[in-house]
């Protein structure tokens, strides 16, 4: 079967054939794409679930167990991986293609495969599927079975997230240097953006890890040895990435706590200054208020030097209060 995949990365609309296919590949025994469909060892077909033709084609596929067909056509967003009647099938998360969305978003890949056929379906273009498609087209790596190609899709997704964690680690290094070097003003926004990225990655990794551990524990006795090894490798890789994600999250939280502590210390310092100023100015305010009353009997009214006497007295009282407050603050 000829390749019907879109060839341009910058295309904004996937090209669908009359069967609702986004792409279809035939693989020879050596694991590389072939145009000789008659001698193909196995096939990969990727459908768009937003196209009615693709859904009808999946419904019409022969020798497809009902439970597998239900997985591919399910209308909800339930995630799972199961093994039934020789088919490993399920729905997992993947990041949407960077050329089809402005913000980072999670999409869903539905898949089912046996020894000779891999069927995948999605509502939105997915990054890992397109990355593996390019690998197939450019003949960079052989895929001798559907399980190898599906493993490549999941590994691609995990590796991309691992690369994101490395970049986030470098960003946290820069933020930490700023905080330790007392140049932390303005780092709060950077740290907030980093934590938002970490939440996205952690949710994605935790989901994939949980699904792989589920199928490993629940269907280990049913899976063929080769497929069992594949699931085990993927589970170990995702668990390791999950631990890395948790460590980076813990580090980000510690930096946020330290940043909050510095903000609190600065706020306390400013409040202390304001408290000292308030204490110093309070006696002067009271004295000026008393002498500002328009009533008889005020002292120094007839004394030509009365203003200076009151001013000097107010200054002396303010100085005494200032040193008293400083001494109390020094003890604390």
Automatic annotation (TrEMBL):
Family: Belongs to the CorA metal ion transporter (MIT) (TC 1.A.35) family.
GO cellular component: plasma membrane
Annotated transmembrane regions: 270-294, 306-325
Taxonomic placement: Bacteria, Pseudomonadati, Pseudomonadota, Alphaproteobacteria, Hyphomicrobiales
GO MF annotation list: cobalt ion binding; cobalt ion transmembrane transporter activity; magnesium ion binding; magnesium ion transmembrane transporter activity
Location(s), subcellular: Cell membrane
Full protein name: Magnesium transporter CorA
InterPro entries to which the protein is assigned, alphabetical: CorA_cytoplasmic_dom, CorA_TM1_TM2, MgTranspt_CorA/ZnTranspt_ZntB
């Amino acid at each position: 079967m000829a390749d019907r995949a879109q060839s341009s990365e910058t295309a904004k609309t996937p090209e669908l054939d009359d069967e609702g296919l986004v792409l279809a590949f035939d693989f020879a025994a050596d694991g590389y794409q072939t145009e000789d469909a008659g001698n193909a060892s196995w096939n990969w077909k990727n459908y768009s679930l937003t196209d009615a033709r693709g859904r009808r084609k999946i419904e019409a596929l022969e020798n497809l167990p009902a439970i597998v067909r239900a997985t591919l056509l399910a209308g909800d967003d339930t995630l799972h991986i199961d093994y039934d009647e020789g088919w490993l099938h399920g729905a997992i998360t993947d990041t949407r293609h960077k050329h089809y969305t402005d913000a980072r978003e999670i999409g869903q890949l539905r898949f089912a495969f046996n020894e000779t056929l891999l069927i995948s379906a999605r509502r939105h273009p997915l990054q890992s599927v397109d990355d593996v498609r390019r690998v197939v087209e450019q003949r960079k790596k052989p895929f001798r079975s559907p399980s190898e190609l599906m493993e490549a899709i999941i590994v691609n997704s995990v590796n991309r997230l691992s690369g994101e964690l490395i970049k986030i680690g470098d960003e946290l290094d820069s933020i930490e240097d700023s905080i330790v070097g007392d140049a932390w003003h303005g780092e709060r926004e950077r740290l907030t953006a980093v934590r938002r990225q970490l939440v996205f990655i952690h949710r994605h990794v935790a989901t994939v890890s949980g699904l792989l551990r589920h199928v490993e524990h629940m269907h280990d006795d049913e899976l063929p040895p080769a497929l069992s090894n594949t699931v085990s490798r993927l589970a170990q890789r995702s668990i390791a990435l999950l631990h890395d994600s948790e460590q980076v999250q813990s580090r980000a939280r510690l930096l946020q706590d330290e940043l909050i502590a510095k903000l609190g210390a600065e706020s306390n310092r400013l409040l202390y200054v304001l408290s000292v100023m308030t204490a110093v100015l309070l006696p002067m305010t009271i004295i000026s208020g008393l002498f500002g009353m328009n009533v008889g009997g005020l002292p120094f009214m007839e004394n030509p030097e009365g203003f200076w006497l009151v001013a000097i007295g107010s200054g002396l009282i303010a100085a005494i209060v200032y040193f008293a407050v400083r001494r109390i603050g020094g003890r604390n």
